[in-house]
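ARCHIVE CARD
Drawer: 12
Card no.: 0347
Subject: one protein chain, sequence and derived structure
Cross-reference: see card 0346
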Amino acid sequence: MGDYGLKISKDGYDVKTATSTQLSYSSQWSNFKIKEVITTTVTLTGADTSGSNTVNNPLSYSPIYFPYVNSSTISGKWRPALMGGTVSMPDDTNWAGVVVNYRPATNDFYCYISHIGSGTRTFIFKIIIFVDKFTGSGASITAIDDYGLKVSKSGSDVLSVNDHDLSMTSKFANLTVAVSGTSSITDTGNVTHGLGYVPIYLVFYNPTGDGTWGGRYIPMPTSGTFNGGTRHVEVWVDNNKMYFSTQDAVNATNFRYIIFNERITSW
């Protein structure tokens, strides 16, 4: 990164010679800065029903965001609010589809859910909103404050820059990695994170051995034809563990996961 900026090396590495993967922080790169977590609900009653709700974006521009959802029938277990098709949530296999879309024209989030089971369910959507922009257009929130620590990106004046052009600011929480790793799963399995709360997380799926997809990693959750069968591959997290379902009782497949210290719930 040259002779400027701020670098912090991981334990055991010399900051003067550390590579990018040996740094815990560098102002050369942007860190995801959490603006806030917004929430909305959709309540469905009866069999084979669907519904939606919208929630306003708290920013005046298109942000990066992570959406998650859970159901009142399985309180405490959260999955990414992504993917259509049959969803195999723990203790409740009756989800038929879920998605969260950001709509620039109305600057809001459209949250859709459907299920094929009877009874009443309330689905809770939580959307992690980041200060960082999804696109370069739109207004920005100012970073001119009389407190805290700010580190600007290369080429930006820290005295006048907007928040989205800061590499780091103490005004917002940044995503920090608590646990990361790989897990080989046949059909179902889990890993323990032990944080005591539901964390923000990302997971990628590798259908090991599949002739088409075996060399690729796919964002989770996903569905498709993997290892000769139609699979709805799921992941969800509670306050202690991350759970996986591959719907494949024969072939072991790989997952790469990143679990952050920052929370989906209980802020």
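Annotation on reverse: The mean pLDDT is 85. Residues 33-133 form a domain with the Immunoglobulin-like fold (CATH 2.60.40).
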